[in-house]
Model the fold of this input.
Amino acid sequence: MGKFRKRVNDFPTPYTCMNAVREGGLETKLSMFLMGFGNMVHGQKVKGLLYLAVEVIYLVFMAVNGVGFLRMLGSLGSEPQKEIWDEASQVYLYTKGDQSVLILLYGVATVLLTIFMVCMWRGALRSAYKAECLDKAGKHVNNFAEDLKSLLHENLYRLFMTPPMAFIFMFTILPLIFMICMAFTNYSRLDNHLMLFDWVGLDNFKALFDSSSILGSTFWSVLGWTLIWAFFATFSNYIFGMILSLMINRKGTRAKGFWRFCFVLSCAVPMFVSLLIMRTMLQPNGAVNVLLRNLGWIAQDASLPFFTDPTWARVTVIVINIWVGVPYTLLQLTGVLQNIPGELYEAAKVDGANAFQTFTKITLPYMLYVTTPYLIMTFTGNVNNFNVIYLLSGGDPITDLSSTAGKTDLLVTWLYKLTIDKQYYNIGAVIGILTFVILAIGALITYRNSKSYKEEGGF
Done:
């Protein structure tokens, strides 16, 4: 924290909002109510008019729609859609009614727009105070043309960052906050809450954490399997990829390129194609079971329960994930091994280190040092590994008909089923929040451990 303050204080600026309120002139203080007034007084008429136009547009919007959106945000609507029989047309007509989804969306957008307006207000106040200080000091105050020209020089970062920030604001922040708010409502098909729903506070979180309920027991079961899957899917790929890379890259191995080609060949086929093929081959009447019957290894009316038994299904998806994931780990660790300085191995050999000591003291620390970000990324990716689970097992088998998840469902596939198939959007939003929290905690723990490892004298 001290380093951060030191960096901030390296570039102090007197043009702050607090200084503008305390030390600014009348025109600057009036800029708190009429944005751009101080700029217009000190010769920046176009800039001041633009600030004023932004303020007028915001106030008009709030007067026409914004206040109504914020007022309805508290109740999310109260007028339900009604069914009325039209005697003349002999059909049922439906009144418009309130749509809570739109009310929530417009309300959240209005809140974010207000936050953006506050930032604009602070920028306008600082700009007015800066113009006042420069004018009173007899220094040059930029006109509008000079401000535009500065966007191509010292303020070029503002020009380039504005469009990306606008898109992030509209397509990332707004949907994210909308989804978080949805977790505190009863938006689902239960009791017909798809059109008109209410705030329920933490009831959805309580229901999900209640292990005595069907929903709660399903959540804890899915969460436990998700963590087990992420651990084995990450480190099994890493360990097997490490073993293969060490075997192929050792000095005594011939035709290294050929062996790399054999293992990496599966990368040439799209992963979803490979997964669908494996799913077909492992069905009760698939190629694997038919071959085993023909060889006489299993009875003619029997089949191995690859996707029908919970334990078999979980082991199957982990093994197939190793098959599709190891080639990528092999390629990455091959590059790491080839960049380890040869002098380290020569020095270890001179010191009398054996192969195991060389591996644990040089090779492994070097690989972990380089690939720690890769491990973090792989672990988080496996927590959200939708493709492997959904395309292989579809989350099956389902052993409890009252449950909404199968034995191989991850949080992400369960979320998909809850929202797309079951239309339990509120519970899906809660699961999305919890998934993010789990990923953030896992990434933080991994980062702290790797950082302490380096500080304690790691490679």
Remarks:
- Residues 1-11 have pLDDT under 50 and may be disordered.
- The chain is about 70% helix and 0% strand.
- Residues 234 and 378 are 6 Å apart (CA to CA).
